[in-house]
Design a protein that fits this description.
- Helix 6 links the parallel strand 9 (171-176) and strand 10.
- This protein is an alpha/beta fold.
- The chain is 31% helix and 23% strand.
- Helix 1 packs across helix 3 (60-85).
- The protein has helices at 16-32, 54-58, 60-85, 125-131, 160-165, 181-198, 257-266; strands spanning 2-9, 37-39, 88-90, 94-96, 103-109, 115-119, 142-144, 147-151, 171-176, 201-210, 219-220, 225-227, 239-242, 249-254.
- It has 7 helices and 14 strands.
- It is globular and about 60 Å long.
- Strands 1, 2, 3, 4, 5, 6, 7, 8, 9, 10, 11, 12, 13 and 14 form a 14-stranded mixed sheet that branches.
């Protein structure tokens, strides 16, 4: 299958129609290239807060609930576009209000109308200490016509045990939002590590550019990337495709599920199969004094 992963810039929106036109144009562009899966980044939905004006968009607390109020309408749009183009779409994540505090929620749309929801598990320092965003519902695996798909939102990709929970996935989506190049590389290294240990494909999308109207996503750095295990059937670097840093647009790659099955069954190494051999060896190691 062909996948499209986004380096997505935020806009200051003046109408709902402008948002509809923007998302439709992006999806239409991916569909024109034959993409069966399109992946938008973390917190791309924050531009929806601008529809309530600059004061709301600039206010950390108000922006969370502004976006939450519009997610249902955004979901209707993405569901329609998925059906129209026969495409699976991971919508850009955004804040979703709960009984306590908002969570960071991504939604996954299948072309026949089904919708999956995945919340971020572990919050960054900014999310937990400043913004008050909390971890949401558990990890899930979506069984689709294009394989078993999981989602690790940004920081989640840096935790091996979360990746291991998705070991049955053929593809793990990693929507991200990172301020600096160092943050981009932390998530990218995490995505590549999850592809290595699970012998699967990971797909990273990024928020890019400046949004001076927001304190939360004012500067973002990144690009799209597709990674696999550096083993049989995959590039020796593990890099299947990568975009240009901070250049908005889609990055495309071909993903062959048969190659994933092949490397899992008969790769030069079988890390996914041998994972359990860590059990009993993963206690805190003693300190041995050498002089």
């Amino acid at each position: 299958m062909k996948i499209a992963t986004a380096a997505y810039p935020l806009d200051y929106l003046t109408s709902w129609a402008q948002y509809e036109d923007k998302i439709a144009k992006w999806v239409r562009g991916a569909a024109a290239e034959g993409a069966q899966l399109a992946v938008f980044p973390e917190y791309g939905a924050m531009e929806l807060a601008t529809l309530d004006g600059r004061d709301v968009a600039a206010d950390l607390e108000k922006s969370l609930f502004s976006v939450s109020d519009r997610l249902a309408d955004a979901d209707i749009l993405h569901q329609r576009l998925a059906a129209e183009h026969g495409m699976h779409i991971l919508a850009a994540s955004g804040s979703a209000a709960t009984a306590t505090r908002p969570v960071n929620r991504a939604r996954f749309f299948a072309p026949k109308g089904d919708v999956g929801v995945q919340d971020k598990q572990i919050m960054t320092r900014f999310e937990r200490d400043v913004w008050g965003v909390v971890g949401g519902g558990p990890l899930q695996i979506f069984d689709t016509e294009i394989g078993k798909i999981g989602v690790l939102i940004c920081y989640d990709s840096e935790f091996p045990l979360l990746g291991r929970a998705l070991s049955q996935c053929d593809v793990i989506l990693v929507p991200s939002c990172t301020e600096a190049l160092s943050g981009y590389w932390r998530v990218r290294i995490g995505a590549m590590a999850r592809a290595l240990e699970n012998q699967c494909v990971t797909i990273m999308s990024s928020l890019v550019g400046e949004a001076a109207w927001s304190e939360a996503v004012d500067v973002t750095t990144g690009t799209g990337g597709v990674f696999g295990p550096p083993d049989v059937g995959f590039p020796p670097t593990g890099v299947m495709a990568q975009g240009e840093i901070n250049s908005p647009g889609w990055t495309y790659a071909e993903v062959d599920l048969d190659k994933i099955a092949q490397v899992r069954a008969d790769g030069r190494v079988l890390g996914r199969l041998h994972w359990e051999e860590q059990d009993g060896r993963d206690n805190v190691a003693p300190i041995v004094s050498l002089h």
